[in-house]
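User: Can you recover a sequence for this backbone? Please restate the input before giving your answer.

Assistant: Of course. Working from this structure:
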C-alpha cells in the first residue's frame, strides 16, 4: 500500500490558488496539472507499506501530531524539482512551512519505527501543482508563481492518506484519508 502523511491547505487557500492559476492552465500542453482537491503538503511518503503496519503508522503519527502545535501557513512563490532547467515537477512554496520540519522528522521517525520506510530527501514544504511529461526549462512558471501569495491558514491536523494508483493510464491516483490526527501541542 502507498501511504503519505500530509497537512492539507484550507479550502480558502486552495480556492485562492486555483483562481490564480485558472487562466494559465492551458498555457503549456506538456504540463499535467494536479487536482486542487488533492493539493497537500507532504510530511512523509511511503511507497510500499505492508498492510499489517498501517495501524501502527497511524498510531505513531497520531502521537507525534498530538505533541505538535498548530501552525500558521500560507502558499507563496514556487519552484521545480529537480531544478528549473530540467523540471519534472512544478510546485508552490509554503510560507511558514519551516515550522513543519520538526513535525515531518517526527512523522518520518514514527513511520520508520512502525515498519513503513519513508522515502525522499530533506523536507521541503511545498504543494505539488503539476508534472511535466519530459524535463522542461520552467523559469517562466517559477516567475509566475513568484508573483503569488495566498491567504494564511492554521494547520491543526495531520492526515494519513492511502494513495491508490490509477487503474488506467492518464487517470489520477485516488486518495483515501485513513486518519486525521489533531495537532494539540503548546
Amino acid at each position: 500500500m502507498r501511504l503519505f502523511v500530509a497537512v492539507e491547505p484550507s479550502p480558502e487557500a486552495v480556492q485562492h490558488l486555483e483562481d490564480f492559476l485558472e487562466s494559465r492552465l492551458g498555457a503549456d500542453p506538456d504540463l499535467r496539472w494536479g487536482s486542487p482537491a488533492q493539493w497537500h503538503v507532504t510530511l512523509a511518503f511511503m511507497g510500499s507499506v505492508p498492510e499489517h503496519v498501517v495501524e501502527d503508522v497511524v498510531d505513531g503519527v497520531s502521537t507525534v501530531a498530538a505533541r505538535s502545535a498548530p501552525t500558521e501557513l500560507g502558499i507563496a512563490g514556487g519552484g521545480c524539482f529537480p531544478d528549473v532547467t530540467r523540471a519534472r515537477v512544478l510546485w508552490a512554496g509554503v510560507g511558514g512551512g519551516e515550522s513543519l520540519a520538526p513535525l515531518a522528522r517526527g512523522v518520518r521517525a514514527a513511520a520508520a519505527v512502525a515498519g513503513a520506510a519513508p522515502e525522499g530527501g530533506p523536507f521541503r514544504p511545498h504543494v505539488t501543482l503539476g508534472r511535466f511529461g519530459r524535463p522542461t526549462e520552467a523559469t517562466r512558471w517559477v516567475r509566475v508563481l513568484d508573483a503569488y501569495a495566498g491567504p494564511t491558514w492554521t494547520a491543526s491536523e495531520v492526515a494519513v492518506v492511502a494513495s491508490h494508483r490509477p487503474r488506467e493510464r492518464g487517470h489520477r491516483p485516488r486518495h483515501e484519508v485513513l486518519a486525521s490526527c489533531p495537532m494539540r501541542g503548546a
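That completes the design. DSSP finds four helices and nine strands in the chain.
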